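Review box. Two proteins, two foldings.
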Amino acid sequence: MKKLKRVLSAMLVISMIAVLFIGCTKKAKPNEDTSNAADTITAMVPPISPNFQKQITDIQASFKKKYPNLTLSMEATSWEDLSQKLDVQVNAGTPPDIAFMGQVNGAIAKYLSTGMMLDISKSVPKEFLDDFDSNTLAYLKNGNGMYGLPLYMAIQTIGGNKKFLEDAGIDWKNIQKNGWTFDEFREMVKKGVVKSGDKTSRYGFVFACNGVTAKDLLVMLAMNAGMPADFDKDLKFAYTDPNFLKVLEFVRALIDDGSMPKNSNTINAGARWNMMLTGQTMITGKGMPVFENSAKANNAKLDAKDSSAVKGSIKVDYVQLPMPTLKGSPEVAGGGIDGYMTFKQGKEAKEQHVQNVVKALYFLTSGDVAAKTNSDLFLAQITKSGKEAAKNTKVDIDPDNLAMTTKLTGEVFEPRPDITPELAAKSTDIMTKVMVPKFQALLAGEVTPQQMYDAVKAAAITAFGQDGIRK
């Protein structure tokens, strides 16, 4: 009996040691290697290129093959809905891990004020960063932080119908090389107008000024009138500069001349391109290098008598052109870097999840994915791995347009990481509540250029004070 008790006692001690050992093991779990644990990374993506959203399933499969423990969940959205959807999710505290956005430098400044952006500056491996053209990374930085990775250097400008330009006696090759001023542009687009009585069948210039592109003409003209950013280098609000009034007067003059439609405030991006393909305008905006490809695709459908060609369309040879400049101001290309921004869903993000987000981020901005997207857009590769993946891809771009794209790439406005989130938030508020509504009213003839300028200046003084604006 005593022997049995001793055996039972020994077994009890062993059991207690085992329990203690197991307990210690469980407590140590947070320090275990979780790099192979299952995880899901979410991304919000618009139709970045003509074929991008069609490739989402393949992209997800390739990512899964590379990282078997990770799942890349991609929410497809439209360009029109992108900002609104992202704003709603950010404000609710549930943004995606990754979101694509045009002109990311300005977008980062905007979203930093929400406290929901994820700084990846200490989480991106050097080998990832070394793959990118070094000048492109600065657009994803603000202060000491880094909030995403770039996909391409976007070029946003205007473009014309080669035949219409030549019929009007416009030397478009000279303009590509040497540019044109506001005054020169105004006189030349008059030559593209075709009227019969009071009815205009072709305008000299049509720009999408409604919907997601409502502010683009205003901002792109301001860039070429000495205001390349919302704030100057002294961090004074730029759109109170007297040159801004000249921009407004220039736009109103184009409409009063009959070169732009009186209903320009109602023309969205889709309508603008439809008018270009149906011969209702000589020059359109905003335009991007990929528009040449889009025009060629529709031309091929017309040749093949394909019923999917744009109804009523004509053959168009698309010529890329620079924005006009206010005399004495340097030529600046709109666009900048488009890419993916990173967000967090709480105050702190788990380090392993951050590393997984970085893996997905780099996967979407390099190698085969970047090569296909950028080639689809007629844009240069900005990673070594993208260039390698695209080396056998033939891009059928007109040599003159290629030279224009190369020139404009060197003129894209510089990043402004010095603009604080607080300043950016106030500027966004003025743009949304004052500038865009007043610009719509200006286009419709409901306010004068002076009235809009005065309204913007008053709002800026309220936001920044007399010493915080350019005079």
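Next protein.
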Amino acid sequence: MIQSVKVKNLSLSKDNVRKSNRDADLDSLAENIAAHGLLQNLVVTPLKKAGHFTVKAGGRRLRALQRLIETNRLAADHEVQVLVLEDDAGSAEASLAENFHRVAMNPADECSAFKHFLDRGASAEDVAKRFGVTTRFVEQRVRLAELAPVVFAALAAGEITLGVAQAYAVTPDVDRQARVFESMSRSYYGDNPDNVRRALLNGTVKATDAKARFVGRDAYVGAGGRIERDLFGDDADESWIDVEIIEQLAAQKLEAAAQILAAEQKLAFVTPVLATHVPYDMECQLYEYHPALRELSEDEQDRVDSLSDEGDALIRELETELEDGTPEAEAASVRLADIERELDAIEAARTMVDDAIKDQLGTFIYLAPDGSPRVHSRMFSERAIRQAGADAEPEAPSGKVAASRLSATLVDELATQRRQILASHVASDAGFALDLAIWLCCKHGARPRGVTQLGD
């Protein structure tokens, strides 16, 4: 039997089978009820007190109605239609039946529905308000509705997940989406959202890239640069697609900084390097100059020790505790860059360069990971310089020194690059990867215990 009952005379039954996530997305449900009314009746059974009922199915709808009344968006004596069950024994079964046979709406249908309202002239803000969701949520769903037809059809058919579809929406270029989808559909890792994003954004630059930070968003856009924003990510996930403009602006800006530095320091040259490190082969073409160094003062030594300890602690946190991409990890990385700059400044202040040869020396200027220009900590010359008091022959260009003189940082960097090259090759050659896996299994698994192979 259907009848009208005041919300204040309804209470939630303990027989309601939904025990968890009772308040999930309750604000959205309340906004939807406020905009469209209660579209599905509550299922209730009568209590001993006349006119009072307990809700067996529809607990979230009841709490949403109560919230609207508490916020004065509905009258205190607001009435709703309910289905009254006289048989209390079957109420738990009714609650289970309502929740168990509910089928979630296909994401593709949801996207098409939101786009339908926008096509009819409604704004994203109006649609969001009427359905109790955020404006960003509506924009995200509409972006999915505008995917390449082959991608959207795969979402509707359940061939790809919502997360994969969101990865394709990182760019509005439907032709590029279709090409990548065709390629990914034949790939073993084609259902991985990160792989999809990587394939789509190949040839673009992230806003967090050192060059992008150095140039600045306003300068890039002012020069005609285009930006694609990932609606499913944060502001740092936007992609700058005109790489040529970034390279040109960054090169011009770094060249200007190099000229200013050379003039201020009265150096023979300052070579700009549009990278986050100075390539070793560029150093190899020059002679490294080793100026005399003064001893650190007591205050400077204490500061160096303090910064080194802090840097070591941050590195341990980044390696063991902090997750990549989190605000804490980003803050730690920024602090590490600040520490490195301060240590470089302290080290640079120790050098004592003879004014007679300073006009023969130069250095490099490059980019720090945060996009700020950084001056190389060492000095070089284009010709060999015999330093005062030195009986030995001038040193050869730095590229001809023995391997034992390579810095630990450079050795680590070369080792990392070697591993990355190997990993890239293995990942791109499935046949070789399989052969390598089988060989490693045989090498480490099939050998009798206690037997050592020559060369291990």
